[in-house]
Design a protein that fits this description.
By secondary structure, the chain is of the alpha/beta class. The chain has helices at about 15-25, 45-55, 70-80, 95-110, 170-175, 190-195, 225-230, 230-250, 250-255, 255-280, 285-300, 300-310, 310-315, 320-340, and strands at about 5-10, 30-40, 60-65, 85-90, 95, 120-130, 135, 150, 170, 205-215. Strands 1, 2, 3, 4, 5, 6, 7, 8, 9 and 10 form a 10-stranded mixed beta sheet that branches. Strand 6 and strand 7 form a beta hairpin.
Amino acid sequence: MKLLSVVIPCYNSENYMKNCVESLLIGGEDVEILIVDDGSTRDNTAAIADAYACRYPTIVKAIHKENGGHGSAVNVGIENATGLYFKVVDSDDWVKEEAYLQILDKLRELTGGARVLDMLVSNFVYEKEGEKRKKVMHYRHILPKDQLFTWSDCHHFLKGHYILMHSVIFRTKLLQENGIRLPEHTFYVDNLYVFEPLPYVKNLYYLDVNFYRYYIGREDQSVNEQVMISRIDQQIKVNKIMIDYLVEKKQEIMGNKRLFQYMRNYLEIITTVSSVLLIRSGTSENLEKKAQLWEYLKSKDKSLYRYLRNGLMGGTMNLPGRGGRKISVDAYKICQKVFKFN
């Protein structure tokens, strides 16, 4: 059995996928690389995947499927993974060799212990086009280092400082046995990927290394602000799924105070992003969608609604009139500069 399965969702990725794959091959025979060609049509993605599988038959597996979106490709990766642990690396991103080898060493060390590791967290780096100084997202003041720990051992998460897809490696069976499936033909499902498994995560480990390199710079990238506004209905869809999930599991999750606080705060930041994008679009139709989103939350859980609506971010996103909306956007721009997103 492999130590780590890595899925690379690919869609018309010929211009950058080789850099991603090459960075992962350094893991050698301990790693299973699943290149999922998600119905690419315009380039040589499928042929490149097959070439790697032919060249490294004991490491790389090429999987070809009809187009279903990023979530569909991740689902197929989960279904086909045979490694003890599971990681998603997008085809335009890559990993750093030294940190990668340290992570593999730590996974070997923790395998077979008395306590089962469910989720390993590491740092990621924003590789933003045109910026010399790279923003490192770390968890040094939030998560205990160099030990297995539980949610109760975590410190308070700051606003805008969350565990993203780039940060996590899950235990494969945790994903498989709990039926984690992401929606197809939907963008921004990475938020669900790092949200829905959390109630099943009991033991965590934080390795303070800058492992994942998250590239931002392509004009067609899903996190480009104008692209996000054009796909706002998919952002809202994911937001509502997160609301439904937290409400459904609320009683179960509330037994773990720190986990509930974290998931509630993560929902808060996603709802804030949805709201400000709807404001930024400047259309009356999207302002109505913002109102409907908050009403949806209220209809699902009034106490959760009150917490988010009366918080600093919720209050800022719902200031009345054109002046209020300007303040909302200005606050969002400040967050962009501080946290380096979009």
